[in-house]
């Protein structure tokens, strides 16, 4: 018998090895920048033509400093959809191209899930950074006549966007790992974010005449709207712009923009989204860990 | 422990022996389908073990259970005494080439291997070594989506070898390889085993691994019907007899405990027994013998008989 293999290399912990592998895999295909381009274009358009946005929310003068913040928040909310899509594609590509077997054999299931979540979070955060920069520049060019928001508020909205997009990347990986079917997972993600959650919010709030005007406090059911994942991200993003736009009516502004009732503060909404992401990963961990890979 | 007619030469290990695979009482049900039913066998280092069975006999499921991809319904499938998922650095212990293993079509062979090397924790320099080993250096920077079946198979083998494993598990590796590729693989596996490492290679075609495997595990309907040396399967050498009254001779032989008798077309008998015994029995029974030829064991016939494919 010959001596065992001499090659040992640096010994790294399983999760670290998985993270390096996932980073290499993420960067070796075009998905990440193929989704970044439309995300950046959307951010540019929304902020360049901020007038569209102020028309949409109605009655708000472009001289109010919050307009650029609000259009930036809107752009970042849309960017989070691309971050989620990237997460879905990252996770489901393994099943679509039948590479899951190799990946699980070499890196293990749990380390792979965590490494993919981390990769998607970083890419999502990158999308948000690009969208924030492109959006801010576009906004300054297009809405330059108005009063400009402070650098601090711009940075705060951008940072919130980074967090929201990172968490949507993680949610995308969790959804993709759970469903495995790429087309199915993309349809579910887009269908939920763009339609189902809005319908759900309307249903939850249907028992309520507009809370602010009627002076009635929204009921427990209507309050649930803020705790749905897409709404929670919107609430987190619109929190600061709403305060600059609406002053003491900021809650009403957030309710109008995000379509929710009695929203929690921005940081609370971010925590809600964090809990959704963690719950998604936990589900994917359990379901993905037991699944037979054939 | 296990009934092994060959008294296999490799290091007779404990359950946790280095390079040892052990499947015991493995059962796997997919819904109503019982793919594997109480299968038990072992794979020892220093030999190529052929894993044979017809399509649908449970080979792939068994290999996937060994590799932690499929959870056993009952029983166990262990690598060096532990489940695959409990190995701290599995890529350095086991290399596997499975049938349903694909590649991202847009990722080049080199980038695929780099990512796998990172997952295993081996140097990126190892990538060039395995590329050269499977003769894919030229195609290394082409997307794997454009690879032929044979090239994909070689890339899968390169992936399996990245971690310099001491156990190789290959599921139908001959698929897609040209004759030169098959010859190369055969030679490679023999040298791999000769270096004291373990090889478990599955096939539904005996011919494909008969020349490579030292040991055979034959399964049928999810259970083991033979495990041991290849020579053991080819059966005891026997004789072909042409005689006046085959039925009488067969009856007389049965009386002496020889039951493995096949009636050949044309009235001959194929008997798995010593020629002296057959001759003596024929004389005692008064059956005239016109001709007797000694024959070597017939691996193919025995395989077909075991797996129920005969006739």
TrEMBL record, chain A:
The keyword Transmembrane helix applies. It comes from the Bacteria. The chain crosses the membrane at residues 32-60, 72-93, 113-141, 153-176, 183-204, 267-288. Keywords: Membrane, Transmembrane, Transmembrane helix. The keyword Transmembrane applies. This is ABC transporter permease. It comes from Pseudonocardia ailaonensis.
UniProtKB/TrEMBL annotation, chain B:
Pfam families: ABC_tran. SUPFAM superfamilies: P-loop containing nucleoside triphosphate hydrolases. InterPro entries: AAA+_ATPase (IPR003593), ABC_transporter-like_ATP-bd (IPR003439), ABC_transporter-like_CS (IPR017871), P-loop_NTPase (IPR027417). Keywords: ATP-binding, Nucleotide-binding, Transport. Residues 21-246 form the ABC transporter domain. GO terms for molecular function: ATP binding. It comes from the Bacteria. This is ABC transporter ATP-binding protein. It comes from Pseudonocardia ailaonensis.
């Amino acid at each position: 018998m010959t001596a065992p293999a001499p090659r040992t290399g640096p010994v790294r912990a399983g999760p670290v090895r998985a993270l390096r592998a996932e980073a290499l895999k993420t960067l070796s295909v075009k998905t990440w920048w193929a989704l970044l381009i439309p995300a950046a274009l959307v951010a540019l358009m929304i902020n360049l033509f901020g007038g569209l946005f102020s028309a949409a929310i109605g009655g708000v003068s472009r001289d109010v400093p919050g307009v650029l913040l609000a259009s930036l928040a809107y752009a970042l909310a849309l960017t989070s959809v691309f971050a989620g899509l990237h997460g879905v594609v990252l996770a489901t590509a393994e099943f679509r191209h039948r590479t899951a077997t190799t990946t699980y054999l070499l890196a293990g299931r749990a380390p792979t899930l965590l490494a993919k979540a981390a990769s998607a979070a970083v890419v999502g955060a990158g999308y948000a950074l690009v969208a924030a920069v492109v959006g801010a520049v576009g906004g300054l060019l297009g809405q330059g006549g108005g009063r400009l928001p402070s650098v601090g508020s711009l940075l705060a909205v951008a940072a919130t966007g980074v967090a929201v997009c990172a968490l949507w990347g993680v949610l995308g990986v969790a959804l993709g790992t759970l469903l495995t079917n790429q087309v199915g997972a993309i349809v579910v993600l887009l269908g939920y974010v763009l339609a189902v959650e809005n319908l759900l919010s309307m249903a939850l709030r249907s028992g309520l005449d507009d809370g602010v005007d009627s002076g009635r406090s929204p009921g427990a059911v209507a309050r649930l709207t803020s705790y749905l994942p897409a709404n929670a991200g919107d609430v987190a993003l619109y929190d600061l712009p709403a305060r600059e736009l609406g002053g003491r009516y900021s809650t009403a502004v957030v309710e109008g923009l995000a379509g929710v009732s009695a929203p929690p503060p921005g940081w609370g909404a971010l925590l809600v989204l964090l809990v959704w992401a963690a719950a998604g990963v936990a589900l994917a961990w359990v379901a993905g860990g037991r699944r037979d890979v054939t | 422990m296990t009934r092994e007619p060959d008294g296999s030469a490799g290091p007779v290990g404990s359950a946790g022996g280095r390079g040892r695979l052990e499947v015991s009482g493995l059962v796997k049900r997919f819904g109503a389908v019982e793919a594997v039913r109480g299968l038990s066998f072992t794979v020892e280092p220093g030999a190529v073990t052929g894993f044979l069975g017809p399509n649908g006999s449970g080979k792939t499921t068994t290999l996937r259970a060994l590799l932690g991809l499929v959870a056993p319904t009952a029983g166990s499938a262990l690598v060096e005494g532990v489940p695959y998922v409990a190995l701290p650095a599995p890529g350095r212990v086991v290399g596997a080439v499975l049938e349903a293993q694909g590649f991202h079509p847009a990722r080049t062979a080199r980038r695929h291997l780099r990512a796998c090397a990172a997952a295993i924790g081996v140097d990126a320099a190892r990538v060039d070594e395995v590329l050269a080993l499977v003769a894919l250096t030229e195609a290394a920077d082409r997307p794997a989506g454009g690879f032929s079946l044979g090239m994909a198979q070689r890339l899968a083998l390169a992936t399996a070898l990245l971690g310099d494993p001491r156990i190789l598990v290959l599921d139908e590796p001959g698929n897609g390889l040209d004759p030169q590729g098959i010859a190369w693989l055969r030679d490679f596996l023999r040298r791999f085993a000769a270096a004291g490492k373990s090889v478990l290679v599955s096939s539904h075609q005996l011919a494909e691994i008969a020349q490579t495997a030292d040991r055979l595990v034959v399964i049928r309907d999810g259970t083991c019907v033979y495990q041991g040396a290849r020579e053991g399967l080819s059966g005891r050498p026997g004789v072909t007899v042409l005689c006046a009254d085959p039925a009488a001779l067969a009856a007389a032989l049965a009386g002496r405990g020889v039951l493995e008798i096949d009636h050949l077309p044309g009235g001959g008998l194929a008997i798995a027994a010593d020629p002296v015994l057959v001759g003596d029995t024929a004389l005692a029974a008064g059956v005239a013998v016109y001709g007797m030829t000694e024959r070597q064991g017939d691996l193919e016939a025995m395989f077909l008989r075991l797996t129920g494919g005969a006739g």
